[in-house]
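[STRUCTURE TOKENS]
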Amino acid sequence: MALCLTLVCLVCSALLGGMYALTAEPIAKTNADILRASVNAVLPEGGELSEAVPVEVGGQASEYYVSKSSDGTPAAYAIKSTTAGFGGPLTVMVGLTPDGKVYNTSVLSHTETPGLGAKCTEDEHFMNQFKGFDPSQKILTVKKDGGDVDAITASTITSRAYSLAVKNAVEAFKTIKGE
């Protein structure tokens, strides 16, 4: 019986290892494509995009990208920011102009409740309020907490997490710029 169980475990382990080896590269390529699409979605069109540069965002290791204009000056920045949402990590890509205004945001991944917190990826009013958001003029917290961000109905925790992710990206941007 022990020999039979050992043999079954070895065969199953070999199958799992084989499937991992077969799917690792396509999964990595898909994730890279999603990341690149997200970066492009939060930055103005045009410009040459840099490789990922490591940065600390909200106390966590992360990365950012710089879009440079034809003369080599930074045209915009895309900063990846992760916070804790209601259902787990919420990762947002935040595009910022050189003057520190939010150009656009895009959710890379989340584990929020479908139909509630997951609306952070589809609620146009919620997502659009971050476009052109000037953190020097407005407060990047939900209105319930004294800020200027309208929360998603019945998803205050997700709205807080999203706002915090954007706020952390803005703070990381200030560090990158040396402010």
